[in-house]
Predict the structure.
Amino acid sequence: MPSVETIFSPALIQHHLLDDRYAVIIDVLRATTSICYALNEGAKALTPVATPEHCLQYRRQGYLCAAERNGLKLEGFDMGNSPDEFRREKVEGREIAITTTNGTYALLESQQAERIFIGAFVNLDALASFLIRENKDVVLVCAGWKNKVNLEDSLFAGALATCLTNFDCDCDSTLMAKELWLAAESNLSEVIDQSSHAQRFKKLGVDDLPLCLDMNRCPVVPEYIENRIVSLPLQNTGIAE
Ligand code: MLT
């Protein structure tokens, strides 16, 4: 039986084996949610980069450039990191370079993995169905907040691990994440509303929680292939047309 492991922070990646495993990058508020929205709205691909300066270099190739730091859109960029900025009229058919405080960092730190996928509540069922069909060992990589553990990513790890019923979970972090999910799933928005990032959003006037918690809103399976995040074709994912 395949196994599922959970890494609560990128700082812990060094203690886990990613080789020969599928990594799922999780940054519910908001990078992996925004990536799912962008692809579901018809974006061609997203290129995650480490710095705003590197991001801007893609502009001369006709890319849209999205940059966020500390929850805020950076001046001079086309978008920040709100899913609401990745609407069809803006992103359809476009290549997007993106850098965020946590999500793109966690992805770039996970490149040892055999394959890298993107997970959020908006693509939970599509991703779970795909992983069950693939039947490969999976490592859930929570982006957290600046290498600290956060509530929302840990909750999503528990939700996804709970869906992977035919997987072994021989690591306590997955057991903890599943217990967390079991306790919170019936009032998810109230629980996540208490998180440090939701509180940060309130101070910043950011109202993205409804979009980020819109369960299965984006039935896509994004994969990081040759430095770009693309949406796997439906027939490759097992999702019904
Ligand atoms: C992220 O990486 O998603 C950011 O740290 C959080 C945000 O976009 O507010």
